[in-house]
Amino acid sequence: MSSKWARLVAVGAAVVLAGCGGETKQPQAGGPPPPQVTVAKPVEGTVVDYDEYVGRFVPIDSVEVRARVSGYLDQIHFKDGQMVKQGDLLFTIDKRPFQTALDQAKANLAQAKANLAFTEADLSRAQQLVRDRTITEQTFDQRTQAKRVAEASVAAQEAAVRQATLDLEFTELKAPIAGRIGDRRVSVGNLVTGGTGGTTTLLATIVTYDPIRFEFTYDEAAYLRYQRMTTDGPANRAGGLEVALKLIDEKEFGHKGRMDFVDNVIERTTGTIRGRAVLPNPDGLFTPGMFARVRVPASQPQTALMVPDVAIGSEQVRKYVFVVDAESTARQKFVTLGQLDGKLRVIKDGLGPNDLVIVNGMARTRPGIKVTPKEEPITRAAPAGPQAAAEPSSRPATKAE
Fold first, then answer.
1. What is the pLDDT at residue 140?
2. 4 Cβ contact list (under 8 Å, min separation 6)
3. Are 217 and 274 within 8 A, CB to CB?
4. CB–CB of 349/55 below 8 Å?
C-alpha cells in the first residue's frame, strides 16, 4: 500500500507542477504587409492660366419695326418667330389713300407743267414785243416773273410727287436686316401710327443671330493683367484673342469665339470694364439674353507640373498629396493647385519634378506608414486649349451688367 500510495502522490505532484509551469506559448503571427500603392512622377507640360466670367449673349443688330406712315394695317406676311432675310415683306398698310394722294400730286404736277409751258410761250412773245416797243418794260418783267413762279410751282409739285411716292412705298414694311423676328404686336385692321416721333406704333422686333456677341465684365486687376500680357493693348483690343464658352447645361468649354471689343472706360461704381467676344451661331443655339460662362487666357504659355486630380486630398481648406520617400514611407505634402488640364491638375507650388506621388491607393495610406510602391508613368491628353474642360479660376468671376 505504501508503495502504491507513493506512486499516486508522485503522479499528482507531476500534474501540479505541470500546471504551475505555465501555458505553452504559441508563436505570434506577423503584422499585415505594407499596402501596395501606385506612384508616378509629376508630368511636366506647357499650360495657360485661365479666368472665367459670367455674361450674356447680345445680338449684333437689333431693330424695332415701326411704320413711317399712318394708316390701317392691311396684311401681315410672316409667322411669329421665323427667320427673315433683309428686304422680306413684313407688313402692308392700306395703300388706297396713299395711291390717291400720289395721283393727285401727279395731276398737280401736270397742271404746273402746263402753266409753265404757257408762261414760257408768253415770255417768248414778250421778248419780241418789247424790242418793237409794243409793250412796256413793266409788262415784260411781269411775264418774266410769271415764268419763274411757274418753274417754282413745277419744282414744288415734283417734290410732292416724290413724297407721295415715298409714302406709298412706306406702306410696305420690309425687313431692314436679316435675323429672327419676334411676334406681331398689332393685328390686321388696327390703326398704325407712323412718323418720326416717339408715339409711333411698334409692330415687331428683329435681332440678328449669326454671328452673335457675348458681353461680360471683369475687374480692374484683370484688366491690368491682360494689358501687360498683350502687346497691342488690353485683351488684344484689335481683336483676335481666342476665348471659349460653355452654357449652363454643359460641362466643357466647347464653343470658340474671339474678342472683338474692350470698352474705353472703367465703371466708377463697380470698378469693372466691359469686354465683348463674337461667336458663330449657324444653328441658332445661342439666343440673345442667354447666360453663359466665358474662359479667357490669363497668362502666356508656361511650364508646370501636373498630377492626376484623383491624387489630391483635402484637409479642411488645404490640399495635399502623398509622396513616397527613399525608405518607402508615405509623406504628406501640402500643395497649391492650379487649373484642371483634362484629368490632370496643375500644381503651382509644393511639389518637385522627382517626387513619387501616390496616384492610386490613397485610401490605404496614412502619413508615416510603410508602403509597397509600384511606379507607373502618367499620360497626358492633348494640351489644354480654349476648348478643353477647366475648373473655375481662383479669381472671382464678375457677372455681366
1. 75
2. none
3. yes
4. no
Mean pLDDT value across residues 291-317: 88
pLDDT value of residue 214: 96
**DSSP designation for 272:** E
Cβ atoms 278, 57 nearer than 8 A = no
Over residues 353-378, the pLDDT tens digits come to 888 999 998 888 888 899 988 888 88
Backbone angles phi, psi at 263, to 5 degrees: -60, 165
Q: DSSP letter at 399?
A: B
- Helix, strand or coil, per DSSP, at residue 84: strand
Q: What is the DSSP string of 308-330?
A: EGGG-EEETTEEEEEEE-TTSBE
State the Cα–Cα distance between residues 40 and 44, nearest whole angstrom.
Answer: 12
Q: How far is CA 313 from the centre of its chain?
A: 34
In the numeric block, which cell numbers belong to residue 316?
479642411
**Contact, 43 vs 65, CB < 8 A?**
no
Residues 260-277, mean pLDDT to the nearest whole number: 92
Percent of the chain with pLDDT over 90: 47
What pLDDT does 30 receive? 54
Q: List the Cα angle 274/229/212 in 5-degree steps.
A: 35
Q: Cβ(197)–Cβ(67) under 8 Å?
A: no
Are the C-beta atoms of 341 and 391 separated by less than 8 Å? no
* Whether the predicted pLDDT of 399 surpasses 60: no
If one compares 23 and 122, the residue with the highest pLDDT of the two is 122
In DSSP terms, which residues pair with 255 in a beta bridge?
245
For residue 218, the Cα-to-chain-centroid distance in whole angstroms is 14
Residues ≥6 apart with Cβ < 8 Å to 54: 216, 291, 292, 293, 294, 397, 398, 399, 400
Residue 362 gets which letter from DSSP?
Answer: G
Contact indicator for 120, 151 with CB cutoff of 8 Å: no
Give the count of beta carbons closer than 10 Å to the beta carbon of residue 208. 18
Neighbours of 254 (CB within 10 A): 14
Which pLDDT does position 25 carry in this prediction? Answer: 46
What separation in angstroms does the CA of 76 have from each of 64, 93, 189, 265? 16, 9, 10, 44
Nearest by Cα to 298 from 380, 384, 173: 384
pLDDT in tens, 179-199: 999 999 999 999 999 988 778
